[in-house]
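Budget justification aside, the reviewers requested a transparent look at the raw inputs and outputs of the sequence design task funded under Objective 1. We therefore reproduce one unedited record. The lines immediately below are the structure tokens for a 257-residue chain.
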């Protein structure tokens, strides 16, 4: 049983075979999938997929690179979509300074990030955090979120083990996907060794981030066993234990079980 906590099946990369692929998931042992939104269109598409498949759930929100399309109606829209019974989180939201180096742009990203954290608080939903090249600012804002009692996951974690430990201390989960299988992923492997399995969530971020031996190809939840095997090796436990514990972790955070 696999719980893919981050999969973009609304992406155009799946247009040719989306429904065959999703329909094959239960037989492949993929019992739960969360499709996070990145803007209005993908948030709506995530909800539509969640309505069609009992094992698909949606998250809604604006990711930082999409900040330019955030307008005066966006906040009300996220609030409305978040009320859908199959919306289990606000996300993905956060900061991405990799492409946006201008201080003005980064300031806007922080404004929309904080605004969406408030929406999560108001909707009583956890958050899915996207953070790239923005370690210090993300930590500062997530400390505020922690004080507010907002739960969540730092998805596709790319920072140090010390940062991971700080998030774990606040109760946040760390999202681990295909990068764990890459030869050069020394930092992430240290993170996996350092934090308890009870704080790790499985994710693909598909269509991106396919694990070895499929690196560079289109990813899907069907490749999660490669990630599980890598985590099991690093933690010195069985693959089955990784599957079960990460499944329970995701159920607790997103499905309130
Ligand atoms: Ni994503």
């Amino acid at each position: 049983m696999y719980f893919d906590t981050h999969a973009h099946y609304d992406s155009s990369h799946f247009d040719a075979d989306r429904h065959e692929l999703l329909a094959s998931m239960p037989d492949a042992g993929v019992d739960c999938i969360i499709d996070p939104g990145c803007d209005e269109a993908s948030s709506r598409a995530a909800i539509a997929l969640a309505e069609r498949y009992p094992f698909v759930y949606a998250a809604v929100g604006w990711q930082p690179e999409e900040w330019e399309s955030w307008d005066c109606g966006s906040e009300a829209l996220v609030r409305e979509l978040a009320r859908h019974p199959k919306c289990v989180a606000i996300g993905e939201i956060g900061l991405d300074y990799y492409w946006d180096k201008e201080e003005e742009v980064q300031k806007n990203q922080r404004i929309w990030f904080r605004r969406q954290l408030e929406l999560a608080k108001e909707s009583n939903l956890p958050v899915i955090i996207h953070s790239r090249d923005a370690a210090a600012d993300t930590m500062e804002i997530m400390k505020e979120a922690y004080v507010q009692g907002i739960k969540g996951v730092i998805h596709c974690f790319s920072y140090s083990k010390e940062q991971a430990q700080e998030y774990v201390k606040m109760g946040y989960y760390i999202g681990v996907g295909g990068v764990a299988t890459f030869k050069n992923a020394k930092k992430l492997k240290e993170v996996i060794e350092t934090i308890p399995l009870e704080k790790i969530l499985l994710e693909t971020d598909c269509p991106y981030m396919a694990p070895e031996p499929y690196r560079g190809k289109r990813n899907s939840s069907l490749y999660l066993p490669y990630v599980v095997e890598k985590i099991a090796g690093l933690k010195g436990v069985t693959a089955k234990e990784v599957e079960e514990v990460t499944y329970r972790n995701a159920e607790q955070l997103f499905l309130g079980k």
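Residues 103-123 form the longest helix (21 residues). The CA atoms of residues 3 and 247 lie 5 Å apart. Computational costs for records of this kind are itemized in the attached budget.
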